[in-house]
Amino acid sequence: MVRVARDRADQLVEAARGDAGPSGVDAGAPHARNTLEGERAEADQEVEHERAGRRTQGASALAAKRETTDRDLTGERVVTDTSLGDLREANEHMVGAALRAHELADEATEARARAEQTARELHVVAEFREMFIGILGHDLRTPLGAISVGAALLLRRDRLAEKDQRIVARIMSSTERMSRMITQLLDLTRARLGGGLPLEKKPADLAELCRLTVEEFEAHVELEVRGDLTGQWDSDRLTEALSNLTGNALEYATPGTPVRLVARADGDHVVVEVKNEGAPIASDVLPFIFEPFRRGKQNEKSPTGNLGLGLYIARQILLAHGGTLDAGSAAGTTTFVMRLPR
User: Fold this and answer.
1) Distance CA 32, CA 14 (A)
2) What is the dihedral of CA 75, 77, 80, 85, to 10 degrees?
3) Which element (helix H / strand E) includes 220?
4) Are 337 and 325 a contacting pair, CB within 8 Å?
5) CA 224 to CA 230: how far, in whole Å?
6) How far apart are CA 66 and CA 60, in angstroms?
7) Rounded to whole angstroms, how far apart are CA atoms 342 and 340?
8) What are phi and psi of 233, to 5 degrees?
9) How far is 280 from 331, CA to CA, in rounded Å?
10) Cβ contact 293:307 at 8 Å
11) Which domains does the chain have, with CATH numbers?
């Protein structure tokens, strides 16, 4: 529009020049000047108006950009403030967790120290108990031996009435049972405090030891022997182990069913299996059957008055020989397996 106004002014100037006479005097000059001034005023107004429009558009565009920028910056500030808040909270949690971890570590250290102290105290108490049992068992042997010898002398004199003989026989039977209990308690003390049972190894035949065990019980015990069963062992200790296992089998066997001893050679080892038919050992008891004072039926009293040490001592005897003793119970049959290196 400015260009149009200027073009119009230029045209008017040219027209004014064309209207000038030969004398060079412009007859229409006043009119042309007036017209030109009017056109120029209009052009100036248009220019000013256009400039004002551009300023308004620029201001509007700038305001819009500023608003958009402010909005974007506001959003970014919100996000930044949120992130900073989350980061600050996370740092607080981390610091709290680290402090709690240190506290827990200190508590664990204190608990470990208390547990170790308690274990030491319990160990001292256990050692004292075992030593007390050993000393008591050893001291009881003397008066018990006197009772047994006196009862045997009374029976040999053959001067007692039949009723008195039965009483003395019960006394002897009771002293023998007490003697076995005391022997087991002493063996328990040796095994737990002395680092194992002492052995006196000599050439021995396990088949003969099995026969002696069968004769000892005077009960329905079947014996099967296969192969060479000789080796270097402590015969008295192995006889004790066989006796404990056979007596345990007879105690828990179903009445009227036999107990079977199967002894066989197995290369550099010999194996003895002691089997009985009857109620199986409970699955929760079987893993602990060789622990002291544990029995197959925990809630029932032993008819023979056993302390629950027979299986423990039998296993200790096998371990002292470098062998193993394992137990299994399934399908109505319980089996104890002795495996003994020659």
Assistant:
1) 10
2) -110
3) none
4) yes
5) 15
6) 10
7) 6
8) -145, 170
9) 8
10) yes
11) 1-195 (1.10.287.130), 202-341 (3.30.565.10)
| Cα–Cα–Cα angle for 212, 218, 223, rounded to 5 degrees | 55
Q: How many CB atoms lie within 10 A of CB 272?
A: 27
pLDDT, one tens digit per residue, over 197-218 is: 778 899 999 999 999 889 888 7
Q: What would the two tokens of residue 155 be?
A: 């029976």
| Residues whose CB is less than 8 angstroms from the CB of residue 8 and which lie 6 or more positions away in sequence, other chains included | 39, 43
Query: Could you tell me if 222 and 228 are in contact, meaning their C-beta atoms sit under 8 angstroms apart?
Result: no
Question: How far is residue 216's CA from residue 210's CA, in Å, rounded to a whole number?
Answer: 10
**281-317 pLDDT tens trace:** 888 888 888 887 665 554 555 555 556 778 888 898 8
Report the relative pairing of strands 230-233 and 324-330 from DSSP bridges: unpaired
Of 248, 267, 204, 242, the C-alpha closest to 318 is 242
**Whole-prediction pTM:** 0.53
DSSP 8-state class, residue 48? H
pLDDT one-digit tens code per residue, 163-199: 888 888 888 878 877 777 777 777 777 666 666 677 8
